[in-house]
Amino acid sequence: MELTPCEKFLLSDSSDSDDSDVETMLATFRQQTLVMALAVKEHEDEYRKRRRGSTVGRLCISRNRHLGNEMLMQDYFSENPTYPAHLFRRRYRMRRSLFVKIVEACEANYRYFTQRRNAAGLKGFSAIKKSPQLCG
Questions:
Q1: CA separation for the pair 24, 32 (Å, rounded)
Q2: CA distances to 61, 82, 112, 125, 126 from 64, in Å
């Protein structure tokens, strides 16, 4: 094994009696370095096993999140909603205007309620879709 510049310096600067001590120290250092490198490699391998990410052959299920959001908006929040105001009030136990104010306040103050894209680049759930959690 080739000596590093630091090891060459240590060997050249010492006397004959200290050579064996320095060589022993260098051998120990090399062993410790090798053990540490193996431990790091083993840790990286374990981490890779735990974090697999997407797996080839796995089925990607389209859950039509955008369609669910559109249906929710049509059912309760459009100009001509499918369900009238009294059914909204029965379901959410508040007026639609109050619910919208709460959603807007949450969206303005909490990052969780903003609609963001996921790792695949698809839009996530909207604030309206996430907000019933607050009331339930």
A1: 12
A2: 9, 20, 20, 11, 13
pTM of the model: 0.51
26-66 pLDDT tens trace: 888 888 888 888 888 888 877 766 656 666 777 777 778 78
DSSP-assigned beta bridge partners for residue 117:
123
What DSSP letter does each residue of 42-77 carry, written as one string?
HHHHHHHHH---S-TT-------HHHHHHHHIIIII
Dihedral angle, C-alpha 88, 91, 97, 99, nearest 10 °: -150
Q: What would you measure as the largest C-alpha separation in the chain, in angstroms?
A: 98
Band of pLDDT at residue 12, cut at 50, 70 and 90: low
What one-character DSSP code corresponds to residue 101?
H
